[in-house]
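Our preliminary data section would be incomplete without showing what the modeling component actually yields. Below, a chain of 336 amino acids is followed by its predicted structure, encoded as tokens that our downstream tools consume directly.
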Amino acid sequence: MVMQTEARVGMSSGHGVVGNKASSSHLLTPYQRSHIESASQLLAGGLAGAFSKTCTAPLSRLTILFQVQGMHSDAAALRKPSILHEASRILNEEGLKAFWKGNLVTIAHRLPYSSVNFYSYEHYKKFMYMVTGMENHKASISSNLFVHFVAGGLAGITAASATYPLDLVRTRLAAQTKVIYYTGIWHTLRTISTDEGIFGLYKGLGTTLVGVGPSIAISFSVYESLRSFWRSNRPHDSEIMVSLTCGSLSGIASSTATFPLDLVRRRKQLEGVGGRAVVYKTGLLGTLKSIVQREGVKGLYRGILPEYYKVVPGVGICFMTYETLKLYFKDLSSKL
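Predicted structure:
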């Protein structure tokens, strides 16, 4: 449609029908343009999330495997996590493709999750500026930080709630090693519903929402603050380099702050797999206490190293791709 429109504009310009961008802008009503802008934001966010997750899938799987090591193992028998050792084991026992085990469901989850996340963030941010009266005034750094933090937290909670069953499926597929209990997305959804009931698809949601709100809030607020500071001091630097660097730093900040909550979330998601006994029978605080007692404080950060290796390129790629696609779609829509 875009190519046809551009061709039509080019062909008609010699006859004075649609001579330039100014006259072509009347082809769409404000209502239509608003819908195109919303669709562009959703598409840019979804593609950015899916692309980022695919690039970092091997490190993501290693993180999950380390996070769940202490669930059914004796604390004394737990070896020191070694990325190289675990990667070699996966390669030798499961093959190269195993590094992307569960990546299909990751993409199926990340497309709607990132779309809803980025889209709702933009709208929550606009709403926050409007209700606080900062929409048409130059706000202070602290005020902007507050808006970005709250909007990011609300966006994360919205996106996680809307797509949670797919996140659960992805964790269970990625955590499988020698024993294959689930064979695919639909089989996993059906099996969980049959074995654990429909509410089994939302196992660990409470912990997820407690963690994802602050995580996304920190990620967005750090990213926006760093990006704004960078652009004000070095306005001519490459947009791609700015987004990649600020996105990576924001990912490190959010992962460090919320990693124990993410670890509890993963373990809660794996409760009762294949009829296994429930390990953690208490809430969030009780589970955190149990992990510290069994594995020490270091147990709360089991898998943090591959998480860092993943999050630096992952979040950077995600923000960079989102900003690039957003500008690209904006340019396309202006030609309609």
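The CA atoms of residues 26 and 167 lie 43 Å apart. The domain at 2-334 is CATH 1.50.40.10 (Mitochondrial carrier fold). Preliminary results of this kind motivate Aim 1 of the renewal.
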